[in-house]
Known about the structure:
The chain is of the alpha/beta class. About 65% of the residues lie in helices and about 10% in strands. The protein has a 5-stranded parallel sheet, with helices on both faces. It starts with a helix and ends with a helix.
Amino acid sequence: MSESESERDEQRRILLARLRRDLRAPIGIIVECCDLLIDDSAEPLSPTFREDMTKIRAAGRRLLTLVDEVFGPSASDAGSLDAEAIGSRLRHELRTPLNHVIGYAEMLLEDAESAGQEAAAGDLEKIRTAGRQLTVMLDQALASLSNTSAPSGNGAPSGSGAGFDVTIEDLTADLERRRAPLNGRVLVVDDDEINRDVLSRRVRSQGAEVTTASSGQEALETLRAEPFDAVLLDVMMPDMNGYEVLREMKADTSLRDIPVVMISALDEVESAVRCIRLGAEDYLAKPFEPTLLRARLRASIEKKQLHDREIVHL
Length: 314
């Protein structure tokens, strides 16, 4: 392979990774808002409403699967990158579940507003907005792909999956303990307002006291001013990203013992390994299952509180 072909292959891999990351973000919002409405709604849901919300969530998860299939590690192989084929899947396969998301969300939003269900209406508006945003992003992705040539090659597909998921046995063991409220203080750090709101509500619904920060610098200032048992830290942030925040925390003797769970729209091995090497307690790719989030947070909070008790007894 010539140097110019190698450069083109690398550009293609970067393009696919960026498109995958960008498209996963609004899908993550759709799935997380559905989880909040179905599992943790403070307002009573009719059977029909719950059934339609379940359909939206299923469509969101289908979108996530399709994006991973189209833009995942195996697609970054030069031999499998067929811009025309990818464009066809974007136009057809992703449009159907996306139309389901927007259509059901608009219908349920109208019903929720008529019934005065303000909380449900707010989440449905976020779902509709994310769906419309995804529509625009798909068009932009098609434009990007149309400008990308795809010479054939025989590179090997990259691996997928970070390998940090707990097993089913881990999640089902000691069920009563896992259902107990999370008793601890958690700092949620994410530059995206909707992601921050959804994640903080999710953690708060599990019993934890939650504080939020919209930037890496704000997170460090908050951590140095108040005590926390765990941090949920987004990887991709402007100005100061999650890696840099994590590095500063581990270099500060007053912060290094606070467990940090990294969260990201990327589920790539390299990103996960980098976070763990920098000292992160764990790594979760968005969107994540509520049970998995609870398990990771509980382990982090209990570890920090045990450490604090040991310090007191020294």
